[in-house]
Write a structure and sequence with these properties.
Length: 114
């Protein structure tokens, strides 16, 4: 089973930025549409953004224009650049394929607060 390790979270003030990284094991990373998800306290996990093997991207309306997803297939890594962060972006962020067929990692906590 492919495993992922998310990193880059932290505490940031509203309007700030963070860059998350997700490193995946396995040799087929480049073939999968990769995605970032998040789960806020008391809420279900939601899809934030995804990127196809060819680099096409799609975003949830709540983050469109503020977040950017990117991938480096040579490094088996997917990134999420988060700008203009809001308190409602506070959540644990996870990465997986869009089909969710990787093992879930521990996620990385993002807290947006003054």
């Amino acid at each position: 089973q492919v495993q992922v390790v998310e990193s880059g979270g932290g505490l940031v003030q509203p309007g700030g930025s963070l860059r998350l990284s997700c490193a995946a094991s396995g040799s087929s990373f480049r073939l999968w549409t990769m995605a970032w998800y998040r789960q806020a306290p008391g809420k279900q996990r939601e899809l934030v953004a995804h990127i196809t093997s060819g680099g096409s991207t799609n975003y949830a309306d709540s983050v469109k224009g503020r977040f950017t997803i990117a991938r480096d297939n040579a490094k088996n890594t997917v990134y999420l650049q988060m700008n203009s962060l809001k308190p409602e972006d506070t959540a644990v962020y996870y990465c997986n394929t869009l089909r969710q067929n990787y093992s879930w990692g521990q996620g990385t906590q993002v807290t947006v607060s003054s």
